[in-house]
Amino acid sequence: MGTSISLKAAAAAYVVHLGANGSKPSTVGTVKRTLDLLVEALGEDKEVGKILAVHVDGFYKSEAATMLKGKPRATASILQIRRIVRAALVWWHEQGYSERLALPAEQRAIQDKHEHAAEKRAKKGTAKDEAPAAEPTDASSAETPAETLAGTDAGAVA
User: Which of 20, 36, 79, 150 has most Cβ atoms within 10 angstroms of its Cβ?
Assistant: First the structure.
């Protein structure tokens, strides 16, 4: 494993990263509050490299992620929490804080879909750059716009 870092420190680093890369203050605040829920659920001293998919799935099903002030959270809020946690886990993995990407199977499929689409776009962009040029046409057989119009009523307009 690259770097051993606590969940609390990794969450703070991710929040700083978002702020430094131009995220709106409201977005940064939402991410911070969401990651605070994760830190509270898993423990601030938990090493990011030791977080498993089962831990993340347990958090997703916890009251912290599904309830607010004794009432069920809106579905949109639950999905937002999952997106934020997934994005943080991916970033931590990219930073070398964790060798494995600790996503539950459902989110692993989503991540794989995003990666596949990105690879496909990159490959398509490369293929477009390497596409052979169109075959040249025989210039003597091509008509000019004036010649094309000469054979129509439009060419007879004086």
Answer: 36
Q: Which of 83, 103, 81, 67 is nearest to 34 (CA)?
A: 81
Identify which of 102, 81, 82, 105 has the alpha carbon closest to the alpha carbon of residue 93: 102
- Cβ atoms of 33 and 73 within 8 Å: the answer is no
How many C-beta atoms surround the C-beta of residue 92 within 10 A? 23
- Domain residues for 74? 7-109
Residue 132 lies in a domain: no
**% of the chain beyond a pLDDT of 70:** 68
Give the pLDDT of residue 116. 65
Distance between CA atoms of 60 and 56, rounded to whole angstroms?
A: 6
Tell me the chain's radius of gyration from C-alpha atoms. Answer: 27
